[in-house]
Design goal:
With 487 residues, this protein is an alpha/beta fold. It has two domains: 243 residues, no CATH class; 224 residues, 3-Layer(aba) Sandwich (Rossmann fold). It is built from 18 helices and 15 strands. A hairpin with a 7-residue loop joins strand 6 and strand 7. The chain is elongated, with a radius of gyration of 30 Å.
C-alpha cells in the first residue's frame, strides 16, 4: 500500500523531471516505506527538487564519511498516519560500483530521464525496461569483488533471489530491437557484455569466471569515467570492510549510520512504573535505527557497571547483617550497634556514589554522541523535580566527615547531569500502573505517579507530556510524531 505522504510528495515532484531509476520490480516496497526510493534528477533541477522535498516536510540527512559519494543526497520523510519513515535517495549522476568505493559513473543520465515513462499502476516515472536492464547488468558486474569467489564456490546460485526476480521482470518487458538500438547508439557499455550476459543467464550456463570476464571488459571501457584509480578504489573497499568487521565484532551496536544534517538530539523518557518507558525506548530505537544513528543510555540502576557491582555485594550483606542481626542484638545506641550502623552506612554510601557515577558517565557518553550527530534516547532520567523518589541521590547530608563527603560527592555528580534537549513525560494512572505492574508496591508507585504529575506545573518547553494510559501503539505513534517535529 502506498503511504499517503509518498503520494503527496510524488505529486509535488511532478514539477521536476525525476525518474525512479532502479528496481522497478519492487517499487511498491519503497512507496510503502519498506525500502529506499532512488530518484535520478537532472543536476540543473537540484534546487527545485530540494525545495519540493523541504516544502513537504522532508529533512536532509548525511551518510557516514565512508559512505558519502558525489552527486548523491539523502532526505527523510515521515508519514504521520502510519508512523513510518520515507527515505529519498537523490542521484544527480549514476555513480555505481562496489560498496564503500563506487568508482564508476555511467554517463547516461540525460538519456534515461528523457526516455522516462509513467508506471501504469503506481503513477511513478520509471525508466524504459531496456535502459533499466542495461543499468542492472552494469550494477551487478561492477559490484563483484574478491569475496564473490567465495560466494560462488559456496553457493550454486550466483545471484540472490531478489536479483533473479528483477532480471526476470525486466526480460519479460524488454523489446529486443529497442535494446539493440540503445546499445548501438552508445559506445560506453560494450554491447557484447550485455548480450553475452543475457545469453548465459537465459541458458542457465552462467559461471563466476564469465562474470569476471564481463566485468573486466566493462571496467576497461569505463576507464574514462572512474572517480579514482583502481588501486585507490580497492583500498577504500578494504578499509570499509575492515570498519564493518570492527563494528560487527568489536563494537556491536555502534556502527555509524546516517545523521540529521542539523545535528544530533537528546531525548529522555521519564515516567512512573508501568508507564512503558523501556518498551517505548526500544520501539523508538528500532524505528529511528532504520536509517539514523541512534544511541540508548539506560539511566536506571538495574544495569550497573563493574565498580557498582563490586560495591553492591558488601552493601547488601552489611545492610542485611546490620538490620536483621547485629543492630537488633546489640541495639542502636550501644557502641557496637553504632559501629555496625556506620559500617552499613559507609557501604550504602559507596554504592550510592557508584550508582551516581554510572549515571553521570552514561550521561556524558550521551552528550558526546549527540554532539557527534546521533539521536540519543535516555531511558529514565534524574530530573530535579522527581529525583527524590525516582533515579535521584540517595544519601542525606551526614554530620560525619567521611559519609558527609560521600553525600556531597553524590550530589555533585547529579548536579553535573544537565537536562537533555527534550523530555517525554509519560503519565500513567495508579489503576493502569497497577494492572501493568501488579507486583510493585502500590504506595511507592503512587508517590512516583504524583511526582511525575507535578511536572505538568512546569513551564519548561522541553517537557512534552504524553498520556501513557492509552494503548501502546497509540503512545508510540504520538511519540514518533513529537520526535519527528523535534528532529
Amino acid at each position: 500500500m502506498t503511504l499517503d505522504q509518498v503520494s503527496k510528495i510524488l505529486t509535488a515532484l511532478e514539477a521536476v523531471d525525476y525518474i525512479h531509476w532502479k528496481s522497478t520490480q519492487h517499487l511498491l516496497a519503497g512507496l510503502s516505506g519498506d525500502t529506499d526510493l532512488d530518484l535520478l534528477i537532472e543536476r540543473e533541477q537540484a534546487n527545485e527538487m530540494r525545495a519540493c522535498l523541504l516544502k513537504e516536510g522532508c529533512k536532509p540527512i548525511l551518510s557516514s564519511p565512508e559512505k558519502q559519494y558525489p552527486a548523491m543526497e539523502d532526505y527523510l520523510g515521515f508519514d504521520e498516519k502510519a508512523g513510518r519513515f520515507l527515505h529519498f535517495h537523490l542521484h544527480y549522476q549514476l555513480i555505481l560500483g562496489q560498496q564503500y568505493s563506487k568508482n564508476h559513473r555511467l554517463p547516461f543520465e540525460y538519456e534515461i530521464i528523457s526516455s522516462r515513462q509513467l508506471h501504469s499502476e503506481l503513477g511513478v516515472f520509471v525508466p524504459m525496461p531496456e535502459w533499466e536492464l542495461i543499468i542492472l547488468i552494469c550494477r551487478l558486474l561492477l559490484k563483484l569483488t574478491v569475496f564473490s569467489f567465495g560466494r560462488g564456490f559456496i553457493r550454486k546460485d550466483l545471484f540472490p533471489d531478489n536479483i533473479h526476480r528483477e532480471l526476470d521482470y525486466l526480460l519479460e518487458r524488454i523489446d529486443t530491437p529497442k535494446l539493440e538500438e540503445i546499445l548501438g547508439s552508445q559506445d560506453t557499455v560494450p554491447s557484447d557484455v550485455i548480450y553475452g550476459f543475457l545469453e548465459l543467464y537465459r541458458s542457465g550456463q552462467m559461471r563466476l569466471l564469465h562474470l569476471f570476464t564481463f566485468r573486466n571488459r566493462l571496467t576497461h571501457s569505463l576507464r574514462g569515467h572512474q572517480r579514482h584509480s583502481a588501486w585507490w578504489s580497492r583500498y577504500r573497499y578494504f578499509m570499509g570492510i575492515s570498519k564493518r568487521i570492527f563494528y560487527r565484532f568489536v563494537s556491536p551496536g555502534n556502527s555509524p549510520k546516517k545523521c540529521l544534517a542539523n545535528g544530533g538530539l537528546s531525548i529522555a523518557l521519564v515516567g512512573a512504573d508501568g508507564a512503558g518507558k523501556s518498551s517505548l525506548v526500544s520501539a523508538l530505537r528500532k524505528w529511528l535505527g532504520w536509517k539514523l544513528s541512534v544511541r540508548v543510555f539506560y539511566m536506571g540502576s538495574k544495569k550497573p557497571s563493574l565498580l557498582t557491582n563490586l560495591t553492591w555485594g558488601p552493601a547488601f550483606i552489611s545492610r542485611q547483617l546490620s538490620r536483621r542481626i547485629l543492630v537488633p542484638i546489640f541495639g542502636k545506641q550501644t557502641m557496637l550497634g553504632r559501629l555496625f550502623n556506620h559500617f552499613n552506612e559507609f557501604w550504602q554510601g559507596l554504592f550510592a556514589v557508584a550508582t551516581a557515577l554510572d549515571r553521570y558517565a552514561r550521561f556524558q557518553r550521551g552528550v558526546r554522541a549527540a554532539n557527534n550527530g546521533d539521536i540519543v534516547l535516555y531511558d529514565r532520567f534524574p530530573l530535579e523535580a522527581i529525583k527524590t523518589v525516582m533515579d535521584g541521590p540517595k544519601l542525606q547530608e551526614h554530620p560525619g566527615r567521611l559519609l558527609g563527603w560521600l553525600a556531597r560527592l553524590e550530589m555533585r555528580l547529579y548536579d553535573g547531569i544537565r537536562k537533555p534537549d527534550h523530555v517525554f513525560v509519560l503519565h500513567v494512572s495508579p489503576h493502569v500502573s497497577q494492572q501493568r505492574k501488579p507486583d510493585h508496591d502500590h504506595n511507592v508507585v503512587v508517590d512516583k505517579i504524583t511526582a511525575v504529575a507535578s511536572l505538568k506545573q512546569s513551564e519548561d518547553e522541553r517537557l512534552l507530556h504524553i498520556d501513557a494510559d492509552e494503548p501502546f501503539d497509540t503512545v508510540l505513534l504520538k511519540s514518533k510524531q513529537l520526535l519527528w517535529k523535534l528532529m
